[in-house]
């Protein structure tokens, strides 16, 4: 867990605690205080403050969150109104428990046990080191190893690494973004399972067949949830980006729309509890921090991942999803804003720190997209519409695999969906 930076000011009757936690999961935030202890918990942050005097939890206490600055402001009532709290700027001291509070080591140890046991109270009082994680987007050109909106962010993922686990595939944050396409191909090829692909190709389930044949049924208009989401987006100013960067940012919409469309199609045009995993995994702009050099590269990368990771790995399904994507882009900016709002909502409610993709890329992308002209969207739509893909385009030797399977050189084994890792 990360200890956020904070400040404490005081009035006659209250402490005003300001906590900077821009990547906090707001819906799961917990704030507690009593006597001389204040605790703030919101993944990936944890803060425990040892106050020099006592406070009290009552109805006059308040907590507010400012999305623009990523800060929580908590008004904490003093137990004794008018009492002065000394040394509130002594941050290190505030983070250290009083010696009388630290639990004593066990005086009796179990003989023969080689395992070190950590008492819950000991774990609660582990050392805290405040750490600031910058959310500011660089004004200058994209960083060679940057990520997020216009590849302007750095160091965020590195500092969160111990908390977020396997949020990304590999370690793309350490790869120059112009090289990520080739690294992504190597990663996907390594994880491609020929047996699974062949099973879904030659022995598709009835459900899969119905999924492929179903008509596009997603409503692409802005609904009430979208309007509420757009209203609540932060009003921050984004950095100016040049024409090449604009085109690259726009291409990020291709794989995000593909991942969303795939998830919608396999779930009968609704969200599911696995939607967060599916979208994050299938969209390289999220799971591999991708920079696409051209639209065809984005299309190929999207289809390739759809044949490597999800439950259904069938080229006809992937090709059908590509047609869905072409349709979405043909409907213009409003349809794409709806897709982004939907994805943002899904990831905020998802687990495994996937909401961080919103803070790194999707929120800024949604803000920026609304300022783009319909002409730019139409140009990209026309470009995507002209792209033709076949199995050889994916560079996974699909044709050779299918030929070997038909000749009996490869035994197709039934895939157990219960074994899928989602």
Task: Name its key features.
Immunoglobulin-like, elongated, 422 residues, two-stranded antiparallel ribbon, 2 domains, 4-stranded antiparallel β-sheet, 16 helices, alpha+beta, disordered C terminus
**Unreliable runs, pLDDT <50, ≥5 residues?**
99-123, 418-422
Q: Helix fraction?
A: 40-55%
Give, in order, the helices and strands.
EEEEEEHHHHHHHHHHHHHHHH
Number of domains: 2
Could you tell me how far the N terminus lies from the C terminus, measured between alpha carbons in angstroms?
A: 24 Å
What is the percentage of strand-forming residues?
A: 5-15%
Radius of gyration: 25 Å
- For the secondary structure, the number of strands is 6
**What is the helix tally?**
16
Rounded mean pLDDT is: 88
What is the overall shape? elongated
Largest sheet: 4 strands, antiparallel
| Lateral arrangement of strands in the main beta sheet | 1-2-6-5
Which secondary-structure class do the elements indicate? alpha+beta
Question: Can you put this structure into words, describing what you see?
Answer:
By secondary structure, this protein is α+β, with helices and mostly antiparallel strands. It has 2 domains: 5-100 and 114-124, Immunoglobulin-like, CATH 2.60.40; 149-419, no CATH class. The protein has 16 helices and 6 strands. The strands form 2 sheets. It has a 4-stranded antiparallel sheet, with no helix packed on it. Helix 8 crosses helix 9. Mean pLDDT is 88; it is low at 99-123 and 418-422.
Topology:
Layout (H helix, E strand, L loop, with lengths): L4 E6 L3 E7 L9 E13 L2 E11 L6 E5 L4 E7 L13 H4 L25 H5 L31 H9 L15 H12 L2 H9 L3 H8 L10 H9 L10 H24 L8 H8 L1 H4 L7 H12 L8 H16 L2 H16 L7 H14 L4 H12 L12 H9 L16
Antiparallel strand pairs: 1-2, 2-6, 3-4, 5-6
Helix pairs in contact: 4-11, 7-13, 8-9, 8-11, 8-12, 8-13, 13-14
């Amino acid at each position: 867990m990360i200890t956020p930076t904070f400040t404490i000011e005081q009035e006659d009757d209250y402490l005003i605690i300001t906590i900077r936690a821009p990547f906090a999961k707001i819906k799961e935030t917990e704030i507690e205080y009593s006597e001389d202890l204040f605790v703030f918990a919101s993944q990936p942050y944890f803060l425990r403050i040892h106050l020099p005097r006592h406070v009290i939890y009552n109805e006059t206490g308040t907590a507010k969150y400012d999305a623009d600055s990523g800060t929580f402001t908590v008004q904490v009532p003093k137990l004794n109104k008018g009492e002065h709290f000394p040394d509130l700027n002594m941050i290190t001291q505030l983070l250290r428990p009083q010696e009388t509070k630290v639990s004593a080591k066990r005086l009796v140890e179990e003989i023969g046990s080689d395992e070190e046991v950590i008492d819950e109270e000991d774990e609660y009082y582990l050392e805290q080191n405040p750490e600031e994680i910058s959310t500011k987007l660089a004004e200058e050109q994209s960083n060679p190893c940057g990520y997020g909106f216009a590849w302007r962010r750095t160091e965020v993922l590195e500092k969160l690494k111990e908390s977020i686990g396997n949020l990304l595939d590999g370690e793309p944050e350490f790869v120059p973004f112009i090289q990520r396409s080739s690294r992504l191909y190597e990663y996907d090829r390594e994880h491609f399972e020929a047996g699974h692909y062949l099973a879904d190709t030659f022995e598709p389930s009835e459900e899969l067949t119905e999924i492929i044949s179903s008509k596009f049924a997603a409503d692409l208009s802005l609904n009430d949830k979208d309007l509420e989401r757009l209203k609540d987006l932060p009003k921050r100013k984004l950095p100016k980006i040049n024409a090449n960067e604009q085109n690259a940012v726009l291409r990020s919409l291709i794989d995000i729309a593909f991942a969303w469309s795939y998830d919608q199609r396999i779930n009968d045009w609704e969200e599911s509890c696995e939607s967060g995993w599916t979208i994050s995994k299938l969209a390289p702009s999220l799971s591999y921090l991708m920079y696409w050099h051209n639209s065809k590269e984005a299309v190929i990368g999207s289809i390739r991942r759809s044949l490597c990771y999800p439950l259904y790995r069938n080229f006809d399904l992937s090709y059908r999803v590509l047609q869905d994507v072409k349709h979405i882009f043909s409907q213009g900016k409003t349809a794409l804003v709806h897709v982004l709002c939907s994805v943002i909502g899904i990831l905020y409610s998802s687990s495994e720190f996937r909401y961080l993709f919103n803070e790194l890329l999707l929120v800024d992308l949604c803000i920026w997209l609304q300022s783009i002209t319909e002409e730019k969207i139409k140009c990209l739509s026309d470009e995507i519409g002209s792209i033709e893909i076949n199995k050889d385009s994916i560079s996974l030797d699909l044709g050779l695999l299918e030929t070997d399977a038909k000749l009996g050189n490869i035994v197709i084994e039934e895939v157990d969906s219960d074994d899928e890792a989602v």
